[in-house]
Design brief:
This protein is mainly α and about 575 residues long. The protein has two domains: about 500 residues, Sodium/glucose cotransporter, CATH 1.20.1730; about 70 residues. The chain has 25 helices and no strands. Helix 10 crosses helix 11 and helix 21 packs antiparallel against helix 23. The chain is globular and about 70 Å long.
């Protein structure tokens, strides 16, 4: 136990020390340095920060619990994000960087009006402060307590244990955000991200060794041949994620989260160049494809390992497996990584919320405010946000419908209308501000009455993800209809504010095709024609895999040829070519 505690303290202190070294050498100056890391983040730091802002301890427990109880269908939330990262890298990011935006609502003011900007920014701030941050802290504390038995170790009550863990992780995370700014957040996220990948892959590998009684291949053979239906990612109507939802609401939920969510896209706004931003975004998409191994395969291993003595609750699958298979020398490192995921999510959201308050509320109110004043406002806002989140987090243990229900339903207030407004804003040059404001207002009313009051999703037995898709189509249609009457005086023309390097990464298109091909291959592999059947893979699987990669390699060769031709023209003209 002493070694475990010492290794935990060592790794946590190492993250802090390395973050300090990077931020000390960076010499970030002014508001842009504090909030946007002086626009100097490279691809590795962008990828690491995006991943740790997205991944959290509760996902490791929740998704593995779902795999233990059902199958791999819930991996859709993670793996299909690869499509959204391609959309961000190839479509959204070039437009964001050309506009030189610090926040997503800043684009909405340029495209629509200041009221639209403030409304969307308010949605983000309220959602981050009352749900995203508190839920991350609370679920992280639960996970920490489950995995390592903190309550039993110190003999405290459950409520006291959760409160102490919430405040401990929250205070340390807030220090990074308040005193270090975005660069400190990105550096700490990247280090913790490397640790998470190592520790996350270690658990299923050691679990397969345990399942095979010391033989890794025997463990693999067991999960492939015994109850192979557990390996199916094709969700049925009554699974947590029915397969059909991938083509309805999940598309737009992922587009919102990865392409318009301030806590995610702020890292890309701070990219050193468009090429570095695209590298970071696509690398994060690649890491999302590892989710079946890290976030769900341990649950399948636990199902087989504890088949003779089933666990009381699915959410105990991951904590129990970690306790049983990790050697004593690795547990302190794993605790530190788990703690780091909670802390990284918290500090990232604090930094983004402070950026919204400083740039979308304070600066328009005080346009002549100095950078020092803007930074001071951001730090004060960070303290307030942290304190409110820390006070709210322990209260979530009393949520009557469970924390996951609270998170899902609250996020539904703003995710679909925001992505609808942003997409219409990009693709239409003439629709005015009134349709955007009406969609934002009507969505809140319709969602409150339909989902929270009358619970139409339950009454009609429609999965809530399908409801997202229906709402998106209705809201885009409403904007287009209202836009026929309420039009801009002049068609929208994007303003070019970015003076940095906007040359695309020359491998961006190739990597995008590779990601999509990998996603298709993963779904084919974990399907009833692949591994999720008795008797092994089918001929149909083999044919589809070959066709997928023939098409992918053909497209990749085409894009490489175009990139080479563009590079030759650029060299002839004396222009820079992609990095």
């Amino acid at each position: 136990m002493i070694f475990t505690i010492l290794s935990f303290v060592f790794f946590t202190a190492l993250v802090g020390f390395v973050s300090y070294l990077f931020t000390r050498r960076a010499h970030d100056k002014g508001a842009r340095g504090y909030f946007m890391a002086s626009g100097g983040l490279t691809g590795w730091f962008i990828a690491g920060s995006m991943m740790l802002t997205n991944l959290s301890a509760e996902q490791m427990v929740g998704l593995n619990g779902d795999a233990y109880a059902h199958n791999l269908s819930a991996m859709a939330w993670e793996c299909t994000a690869a499509v959204a990262t391609v959309a961000l890298a190839m479509f959204f990011l070039p437009r964001y960087l050309r506009g030189g935006f610090s926040t997503l609502p800043q684009f909405l003011e340029e495209r629509f009006d200041a009221t639209t900007r403030r409304v969307v920014s308010a949605f983000f701030v309220i959602g981050y402060m009352l749900v995203a941050n508190p839920s991350g802290l609370y679920l992280g504390a639960i996970t920490f307590n489950q995995v390592f038995g903190v309550q039993a170790l110190f003999g405290t009550s459950y409520a006291s244990t959760i409160t102490i863990l919430v405040w401990m992780s929250g205070i340390i995370g807030a220090l990074y955000a308040i005193f270090g700014g975005l660069r400190a957040v990105a550096v700490s996220d990247t280090i913790n991200g490397v640790g998470l990948l190592i520790a996350g892959l270690l658990v299923p590998v050691l679990g397969l060794f345990a399942l095979g009684h010391g033989n890794f291949l025997t463990g693999v053979h067991t999960i492939v041949t015994q109850a192979p239906e557990k390996l199916s990612a094709i969700g049925g109507p009554h699974d947590s994620v029915p397969f059909g939802t991938l083509f309805t609401g999940m598309i737009f939920a992922n587009l919102f989260y990865w392409c318009t969510n301030q806590a995610i896209v702020q890292r890309t706004f701070a990219a050193k160049s468009l090429a570095e931003g695209q590298k970071g975004v696509l690398l994060s998409g690649m890491m999302k494809l590892l989710v079946p191994l890290i976030m769900m395969m341990p649950g399948v291993v636990a199902y087989h390992l504890y088949a003779q003595h089933p666990l009381g609750r699915p959410d105990l699958a991951y904590p129990q497996l970690v306790t049983d298979v990790l050697p004593w020398w690795a547990k302190g490192f794993f605790i530190a990584v788990l703690f780091g995921t909670v802390m990284s999510h918290f500090n990232a959201v604090i930094n983004s919320t402070a950026t919204l308050i400083a740039f979308d509320f304070y600066r328009p109110w005080r346009p002549d405010a100095s950078d020092e004043k803007l930074i001071r406002v951001g730090k004060i806002a960070s303290v307030v946000i942290a304190v409110v989140s820390l006070l709210v987090a322990p209260l979530l243990m009393y949520a009557p419908d469970g924390i996951y229900t609270v998170m899902r339903r609250f996020t539904g207030f703003y995710n679909i209308p925001i992505i609808a407004v942003v997409l219409v804003g990009f693709f239409s040059k003439k629709i005015g501000a009134f349709p955007a404001k009406m969609v934002l207002l009507l969505h809140v009313i319709v969602y409150t009455l339909g989902i929270l009051v009358f619970q139409l999703d339950k009454r009609l037995d429609i999965n809530f993800i399908h409801i997202m898709g229906i709402l998106f189509v209705c809201e885009v249609t409403l904007m287009l209809v209202l836009g026929m009457r309420h039009r801009r005086v002049k068609p929208y023309e994007p303003q070019l504010r970015q003076t940095g390097d906007l040359t695309p990464w020359r491998h961006a298109s190739t990597m995008s095709v590779f990601l999509i091909a990998m996603l298709v291959s993963i779904y084919l592999t974990f399907s009833p024609i692949g591994l999720a059947r008795h008797g092994g893979v089918t001929m149909q699987y083999e044919v589809l895999i070959v066709l997928t990669w023939c098409a992918a390699l053909g497209l990749m060769a085409l894009f490489r040829r175009k990139s080479s031709a563009a590079g030759a023209l650029g060299r002839a003209a004396g222009e820079p070519i992609g990095h």
